[in-house]
Amino acid sequence: MNLVLTFLKRYPSQSVVTLFAMLFAGIAEGFGMSMLLPLLTLSFDSSGSAMQQPGSNHSPSSLEIAVSNLFAFLHIHPTVGLLLILFVMSIIIKVSLVLIANRQVGYMVARVATDLRLDLIRAIFASRWEYFVHQSAGAFTNSFATEAQRSASAYLFGMRIIALLLNCIVYISVAMMVTWRITLLALVVGSLILYLLKQLVIKAKQAGKNQTDKLKSLISLMTDTLQSIKPLKAMAREQTTQTMLEQETLNLNHALRMQVFSREALRAMQEPLMTIFFSAGLYIALVTFNLSISSVLVMVYMLNKILKTLQRAQRQHQSMVIAESAYWSMQSRIQEAQKWYEQWKGTKLPFFTQAIRLHNVSFSYDSKSILNNISVTFPKGRFITLAGPSGVGKTTLADLICGLMVPSSGDILIDHTSLSEFDIKKWRKMIGYVAQETMLLHDSIMVNITLGDKSFTEADVEYALKRAGAWEFVSRLPDGIHTVTGERGSRLSGGQRQRITIARALIHRPQILILDEATSALDPASEKEICETLKNLAGDLTIFAISHHDRMIDAADMAFILNNGVLEPISR
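Predicted structure:
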């Protein structure tokens, strides 16, 4: 029940309101049920007295005495009609309170899923860049979509367990007032039956954990595969990945089958065990304890309520343990991301008027040295190209300038101030970044450029498109900047898509533009056009273009080659 306690601590006020509503609903139902015994006594008693009939061997129970004293205190004479009215009214009150509680629980289920998703989003976007390098996009997708919803279901099942147990306490209290010996016997045997069926709950918990692990693996593999489906199909190698996905799906199916079996086995075995016990209890009540027929009928009703409630509580517990592994998995991912929280102590407002200087900068990934004691000056307003073989650290150098990475030694100076002294968020707002992958949302061109930021106007979008050399072809599209990318009639070429991403990087009017292999996938004509665009942008912008293409090197004002951790100028 650790999960239930966790939810109660996180949502104390909302949970208390829900539980009080359920408690009072149970009390209302218990009050109504307490009217049953005197009602039945009246029905079997021709004299109309709710108490002991003269000459009868029946000894009134504590419940009968309590109800009789209550009516005597209120100076009310109990009749069949009055007792029926009280019984019906109590059930109506109970149903109304249950409705309120269930509505609150429903709202909380939605809130739990939403809060977990928000926690995940905030943890991810607040973490350092190094955290993302080794993460699978599919794992995040699985947590956001699947695990959050299953966690909310676990909350629902947990609250139902507590509500059922509260109701059971009320039922037990009423039954104890009829005959405490049979009630205790019922509780002992009922608890024994639940214990005997505990193994099915444990199996369900293991099946739920397997489901969480298999879903995580399957969705991660599916997401990563779809990102590279084009080369797989081009090489006719998609069958291998398809086989892997099919096997993961079958593994998930096995976990789901185990989950279904344990759930249905619990339901199937509860029924006969409870029936045997119920029949034995009825025999004991009639033969051993020689209870009156009215008391026996009430006990039958009460014991049925108690046992059914315990059955439902166990089934809800089984459902909760199936879902709870998703909650702990999601919490683990959130906490892992939080450990990578990006801490930056700088508070100064950034400025850039002269140059970016790297002073004796070195950087290593674990024990692998990438940059070795680099010192270089990049003047403001220049078009600078960084060339070199793949994997030598060109992107790492750009990441250091952005503050995504921190040098192992040395310092990065903006004019004459260390980058570490600046407010890093404000510094990054001075940067436009274009990656190699031309990631576009399946949305309008305007949304792709503004990323949904309402502070940007259509005029701002037009400005960015013109600076990126994209306004001419965008203005000819069916709906202009409101054209949805990817739809028929608005398919964009690789060069056009790349210009859209450049416009995205320019819309907030940065002072620095970084392009990481942004033209590597383009044809020579498209690359030449983008090089001309970048040359026109230089002066107003300081441009860092990472590329190993001669055309980009020739277009630059300054070109450097990075190899073996050393940055050297390219003489031209």
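Summary: The chain has two domains: 2-339, 355-569.
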